[in-house]
Amino acid sequence: MKYLVFETKKDASKKAYEILKQLINKNSTLGLATGSTPIDLYHEMIEDFKKGNFSYKNIKSYNLDEYVGINYDHPESYHKFMETNLFNHIDIDKNNTHIPNAGAKNLKQALEDYQNELNNTVIDVQILGVGSNGHIGFNEPGTSFETGVHVVDLKEETIKANSRFFDNNIDLVPKQAVTMGINDIMRAKHIILLAFGKEKKEAIKYLTSGDLIDENVPCTILKKHPSVYVFVDKEADYK
Ligand code: F6R
Asked: Where is the Glucosamine/galactosamine-6-phosphate isomerase domain (predicted)?
């Protein structure tokens, strides 16, 4: 595991993009995350694309998760998030982008379909944020490391943290999500995890120090992954 600390999240995201570019080529498959953490990295990707330095024409992407219970055109749905923060600004073919179909009438079938797609894919680089409770994707503490795609009941702290995107109104925050499982995340060839701000410090400490690998702190499984890059700003640095 490579642990890299930067003065600001902007600096960390710039470096993360540099590494990402070394790990992929024009035909790669990316695993993508949402939330506030990857926004600056996506900005770097967009800027470089605009300069003509990289094309996403043949890139495929798979997103980690999507809320259950909100429309895809809701500004906080992860479908909308990806359009607004990345897909609408690069030349990726939308047919090559995949996000869990959490709004499907037959949700069980949708989970199976996403699992099958993932099983038939190798993600070259998985981008991850981390929850203050150590969740990756929406695999909340206590989730088995063996899980695949599933519906999750979001923990109270996650709902509270995400209420900042929903007028600070907990009632408006979806209470469930569909997420890739830990097992799916671990199959990626490389992982780039970003974490910014003091709320992430404890999770980063468990992730980057000591021997603990425990389902109660989901990110600790990444200690077993052969290629993980962790980029933090100085506020998330535990030292
Ligand atoms: C989002 C995701 C989550 C977030 C995490 C941190 O697709 O899978 O694990 O990465 O909740 O969220 P932010 O970045 O908003 O602090």
From this structure: 11-224
Q: How far are the Cα atoms of 2, 86, 174, 216 from residue 68, in angstroms, in the given order?
A: 34, 22, 7, 23
- Specify the pairing of strand 65-68 against strand 125-128: unpaired
Tens of pLDDT, residue by residue over 18-33, are 999 999 999 999 999 9
CA distance 79 to 151: 17
Q: Are 3 and 219 in contact, with CB atoms under 8 Å apart? A: no
Rounded to whole angstroms, how far apart are CA atoms 183 and 221?
Answer: 10
Please say whether the beta carbons of 178 and 100 come within 8 A.
yes
Instruction: Look up the domain containing 92 and give its range.
Output: 2-195+221-231
Q: For residue 80, what is the domain's CATH number? A: 3.40.50.1360
Any domain includes 216: no
Encoding tokens for residue 155?
């923990």
Q: Is 36 in the pocket of ligand 1 (CB under 6 A)?
A: yes
For 63, phi and psi rounded to 5 degrees? -90, 155
Rg (CA), the chain: 17
Q: How many domains does the chain have?
A: 1
Whole-number Å distance, alpha carbon 225 to ligand 1 midpoint, is: 20
Ligand 1 touching residue 79 (CB < 6 A) = no
The model's pLDDT over 151-188, given as tens digits with 9 standing for 90+, comes to 999 999 999 999 999 999 999 999 999 999 999 999 99
In Å, the largest CA–CA distance within the chain is 47
Indicate which atom in ligand 1 lies nearest the CA of residue 199.
Answer: 16
